[in-house]
Write a structure and sequence with these properties.
With 251 residues, the protein is of the alpha/beta class. Helix content is 27%, strand content 23%. InterPro entries: PCMT, SAM-dependent_MTases_sf.
């Protein structure tokens, strides 16, 4: 039954808590009782580096963060599969490749302050915490925010702040941010997120219809100037909030 659940998750569109699937993915066998460290190294090499993600700091961070700690106990054998997996709250954890793709697009530096919209299981935030000075993360589901906070505490990752709220409003009390990553697809870019970027800051967000979006990178080049680049097609569930979709129905 666990394998069936994992396979079904790969067919979904992700979740507002951070799960998504690239339009290309390889089959990846479950690890069983195999050593998680070995599977983590293989995941980085086969699923991420071979697909063109080359930032050495990012690859090192993904080799370090134990993905199995961010999925339910009964699914830990599947933590390094090349697909999303179900987590708490009826949500999912993103395919490893799409986590890496978004983080690389954000070009996170050691001195950066980063905002993540949709913390979900906390996995992407944990990876970013190995790269940035501080990560601020928001989830609209209190259960997910609390679970993610507990996972960070157990791992000793202390450069993160996690709260519950409407991510489309950003986190104005902590702005500006050097990078903002949004783990849900919106019909357009929420104005508060653009406004909370530093000059030179990068916003990575899926934009489009509810069933499929384009992953976009928006760079703030001046007080009122932004450059936009399309990266690739992705599938996330709707970004819910005042500046996103108003409900979870497909549009």
């Amino acid at each position: 039954m666990i394998k069936v659940r994992a396979q079904r998750a790969a067919k979904g569109y992700g979740d507002a808590g951070g799960a998504a699937e690239s339009r290309h993915s390889d089959q990846w066998p479950g690890g069983g009782m195999a050593d998680s460290e070995r599977l983590r190294q293989m995941m980085v090499e086969r699923q991420i580096a071979r697909r063109g993600v080359g930032d050495p700091r990012l690859l090192a961070a993904m080799r370090q963060v134990p993905r199995e700690n961010f999925v339910p106990e009964e699914l830990r054998d599947f933590a390094y599969e090349d697909r999303p997996l179900p987590v708490e709250g009826g949500q999912t954890i993103s395919q490893p490749y799409i986590v890496a793709r978004m983080i690389e697009a954000a070009a996170i530096r050691a001195s950066d302050r980063v905002l993540e919209i949709g913390v979900g299981s906390g996995y992407a935030a944990a990876v970013m915490s190995r790269l940035a000075a501080h990560v601020f993360a928001i989830d609209r589901l209190g259960e997910l925010a609390a679970l993610a906070r507990g996972r960070m505490e157990r791992l000793g990752y202390d450069n993160l702040s996690i709260r519950t709220g409407d991510g489309t409003e950003g986190w104005p009390e902590q702005a500006p941010f050097d990078a903002i990553l949004v783990a849900a697809g919106g019909p357009s870019v929420p104005p508060p997120l653009r406004e909370q970027l530093t000059i030179g800051g990068r916003l990575v967000i899926p934009v489009g219809e509810a069933r499929e979006q384009q992953l976009m990178r928006i760079t703030r080049t001046g007080e009122e100037a932004f450059e936009t680049q399309k990266l690739e097609a992705v599938r996330f569930v709707p970004l819910i909030g005042a500046h996103g979709w108003h409900d979870t129905k497909a549009r």
